[in-house]
């Protein structure tokens, strides 16, 4: 009996010992885990602090340097070193650097003027040609557009979107620096005014194949924004003056100051203030402020109509019933025999009627009042791609004086 009791007692004390050992081990591992956690979080917060410090230094760098004179102790060698800081490939410039890149913002270097301010031609010390936009619009809206443009173009990259080279927020100045597009805005070529380099005295010399290439490039720009980015980006100010042309008349979409992130849900919309340019704004957005990627598709359709007809979206000086381009053109677009009646006379019949009918049908789908029935930009890209022919470098010119105005001929039907 006594032996059995002793046996039980021994087992009991062994169990107790095991419990104590296990508890000690658990406590020890808890302690080790806690110490490790403290060590890591300390390391992370130190790293974050040093990053924040560096960013603050970067932001302070521009105004400090711009205030200093040529070669004065700031280390910029009197403006010879162009880059103050690099932010995901987008450079931060000082006002002084852009002042010298644009010949002191000389009048001779002005290449255009928009609602943001004047646009200047410039050359960076490394030889790169740039366009510099100098904001002359004080107030919250201008500030918002500047920030949106910088934030979006720092992240979005496509061969069909204009590249932002850098920006400057220095001593109250706001400037945007872009790659230089040698042939400027599409509208200048569609509607050349007196004084603009066109040998035909105000008649567009943009040939059909070039127009189709521009339409395709621009559609790819919007396709990227709508379908390759998540959440999708709605441009909100797509128009012919925001399609810029390089020296080979390839097009890039520009000006993202009004852009908005769209809804990720299929058929979803975002509600927002109604902004944009008259003649390009989709009816449902104009009426309700409901914005979707299909609002851009509508604006794209208006640009296609400009390319077909050579007419600006709104001109109340045109004969009665012709003032609003969409309203005037819509009844012609889906009638094969009628398309010829709205074609730009400046094309002088130099296009395939079959292709023109197809483009008119695409434009009709894009500008239809019911947003849901408008195509996706990917569908537009697919439909336009076969219509774009390889252009020889001689044929692409729109403003070269070597190209004479041919007498009007009838387009070929094939
Ligand atoms: N990157 C660039 N390269 C060459 N020229 C440019 C460039 N950006 C703009 N321009 C020229 O400056 C003009 C004005 O452009 P800007 O974007 O400021 O105004 P807009 O598009 O005409 O009007 P809005 O302010 O309503 O958008 C363009 O039509 C074009 O000729
Ligand atoms: Mg513009």
TrEMBL record:
It comes from the Eukaryota. Residues 51-76, 390-414 are annotated as: Disordered. InterPro entries: Kinase-like_dom_sf, Prot_kinase_dom, Protein_kinase_ATP_BS, Ser-Thr/Tyr_kinase_cat_dom, Ser/Thr_kinase_AS. Gene3D superfamilies: Phosphorylase Kinase, domain 1, Transferase(Phosphotransferase) domain 1. ATP binds at residue 140. Keywords: ATP-binding, Kinase, Membrane, Nucleotide-binding, Serine/threonine-protein kinase, Transferase, Transmembrane, Transmembrane helix. One of its GO terms (molecular function) is protein serine/threonine kinase activity. The chain crosses the membrane at residues 14-39. Residues 53-62 have a biased composition (Basic and acidic residues). Residues 395-406 have a biased composition (Low complexity). SUPFAM superfamilies: Protein kinase-like (PK-like). Residues 105-388 form the Protein kinase domain. PROSITE patterns: PROTEIN_KINASE_ATP, PROTEIN_KINASE_DOM, PROTEIN_KINASE_ST. CDD domains: STKc_IRAK. PANTHER family: OS01G0750732 PROTEIN (PTHR47989), SERINE_THREONINE-PROTEIN KINASE PBL7 ISOFORM X1-RELATED (PTHR47989:SF15). Belongs to the protein kinase superfamily. This is Protein kinase domain-containing protein. The lineage of its organism: Eukaryota, Viridiplantae, Streptophyta, Embryophyta, Tracheophyta.
